[in-house]
Amino acid sequence: MGSHGFKTQFLSVDRVDPKTKVCLPYAYLKSTIYERHMVLYKQCDQLTDELIGLERMSSGKIDHTSDGINSKDQADAVCGALYLASQFAEQFAYDYGESLNAALEVNTTYSENYKRRQMITDFEQELTKAYTGMQEEDKEDNGFGDAAHGITQQDYQDIIDGIIII
């Protein structure tokens, strides 16, 4: 993803902080689960089994038990995503009582110039639909063509070019 211009970061959830002998990403996951700040789908059997099968080794490293499920890929993915999201929590947080819609509206404010351009684009799309509809009707007119509608070939070209006189 980094080669395609996305901002990326490497995170090893297996690393132990040398000072505290604690695996910080898994400690954060543990507190999130205990404080009930995370909701999982009911059908996450593999993830549930992996999380239940984890244990803290004497070195502080988190690993799966030898008698449990022999994988922790999903647990590592959830742990890493949650931990990295927590690092940017202040940047994307919103205040209590503020609706999510208000937060989204802040990010979608458009200038008047943008609104005008969008209105012109929408109008041009509607004209194109009308023009296409007239062409289809002309094909079904049994040869009477544009003259039956009072529309000349130049009128069609003006519509395509965006020239409209009202």
How would you explain this protein's 3D organization?
The chain has 166 residues and is mainly α. It folds into 2 domains: 97 residues, no CATH class; 50 residues, no CATH class. The protein has 7 helices and 2 strands; from the N terminus they run H-H-E-E-H-H-H-H-H. The protein has a two-stranded antiparallel ribbon. It is elongated. It starts with 23 loop residues before the first helix and ends in a 5-residue tail after the last helix.
Describe the secondary structure blueprint for this structure:
Layout: H1 24-34, H2 45-52, E1 54-56, E2 62-64, H3 73-87, H4 89-92, H5 100-107, H6 112-139, H7 153-161
Antiparallel strand pairs: 1-2
Give the helix level as a range of percent. Answer: 40-55%
Biggest pleated-sheet summary: 2 strands, antiparallel
Q: Tell me, what's the shape?
A: elongated
N→C terminal distance:
51 Å
Provide the succession of SSEs. Answer: HHEEHHHHH
The figure for the number of domains is: 2
| DSSP summary: helix tally | 7
Kindly state the number of beta strands. Answer: 2
Q: Strands of the biggest beta sheet: in what spatial order?
A: 1-2
Strand content: under 5%
> What gyration radius follows from the Cα positions, in whole Å?
30 Å
Which structural category fits the helices and strands? mainly alpha
Give unreliable regions as ranges.
Answer: 142-146
Q: Provide mean pLDDT, rounded.
A: 76
Give a concise summary.
The chain is mainly alpha-helical.
Structural descriptors:
mainly alpha; two-stranded antiparallel ribbon; 7 helices; 2 strands
